[in-house]
Specification:
binds magnesium ion; seven-stranded mixed β-sheet; Nucleotide-diphossugar_trans; 7 strands; Spore Coat Polysaccharide Biosynthesis Protein SpsA, Chain A; binds guanosine-5'-triphosphate; Glyco_trans_2-like; alpha/beta; glycosyltransferase; DPM1-like
Length: about 250
């Protein structure tokens, strides 16, 4: 590909004030020079205000904020964020070429973005930042049982859904716009991280070429985890439903 691919990174936030302040400049300065769309569920800690302050320091359109009325979960934030990212036409009538999804808590390495872009240039429609491939890793500081739980959840989903990817449960992904636009987003209704499984499954159902780039996943050092037993429960039962009914059958 000769022309630079224009990229927007969608970052969902809930109470990530400190993390987003550190992440945004690093992301904007990445060699792939993406624009950023933060999807904030009116975080009480003022995350949205910090995003707007940072946006003023950069060119128009490099940082956008989508504010939602209240906390509705990761899935809802991404459905809204993807829909907005596909609407934005930052270059005259042109859309972005690529949409990246990424957590705000520092778990997903910004340094992996150039390799993910290279995988798209090599023909991938979807690139997963993957922990369970050679060169990938979970946080060294995690105790063995936490690693086992994370790996076990991934094997469970991957095996039941017969998905030919190593990391089905991760949340760091680079989408080509035609593929993302082909997803039936309003019918991918998971609330929590089951949404990650659902969207990759939907891509596989469409015959997409999926590539995996190794990442070292880093544990958040600031702010609180939003993971809950309800979210884990949803993920487990929705995998069973998706096994019967496909990606849109997780209700
Ligand atoms: N807009 C929005 N963002 C959310 C919501 N829940 C989580 N996030 C964001 O989504 C990203 C990933 O969050 P989770 O994986 O749910 O939780 P986490 O705190 O990262 O969990 P661990 O890191 O696994 O402990 C972070 O940037 C969160 O701020 C939500 O309800 N709304
Ligand atoms: Mg996290």
């Amino acid at each position: 590909m000769t022309q630079a691919l224009r990229t927007v990174v969608v970052v969902p936030t809930y109470e990530e004030a400190e993390n987003i302040a550190e992440m945004l400049p690093a992301l904007l300065n990445s060699p792939i020079a993406p624009d950023v769309l933060v999807v904030d569920d009116s975080s009480p800690d003022g995350t949205g205000g910090i995003v707007l302050e940072i946006a003023e320091r950069y060119d128009e359109g490099r940082v956008r904020l989508l504010t939602r009325a209240g906390k509705e979960g990761l899935g809802a934030a991404y459905r809204a964020g993807f829909a907005r990212a596909l609407e934005i036409a930052p270059f005259g009538a042109d859309q972005y070429d690529l949409v990246v999804q990424m957590d705000a808590d520092g778990s997903h390495p910004i340094s992996a973005l150039p390799a993910m872009l290279a995988a798209v240039q090599g023909g991938a429609d979807l690139v997963l930042g993957a922990r369970y491939v050679p060169g990938g890793a979970l946080d060294d500081a995690w105790p063995w049982y936490r690693k086992a739980l994370s790996k076990g959840a991934n094997v469970y989903a991957r095996t039941l859904l017969r998905a030919p990817v190593a990391d089905l449960t991760g949340g760091f992904k680079m989408w080509t716009v035609p593929l993302l636009a082909s997803l039936p987003l309003s019918r991918l209704t998971a609330t929590g991280y089951a949404f990650q499984i659902q969207t990759t499954l939907a891509a596989l159902e469409r015959g997409a070429t999926v590539a995996e780039v190794p990442i070292r996943f880093a544990e958040r050092t600031r702010g609180a985890s939003k993971m809950s037993s309800a979210i884990i429960g949803e993920a487990m039962t929705s995998v069973l439903k998706m096994r019967r009914n496909g990606s849109t059958g997780a209700r």
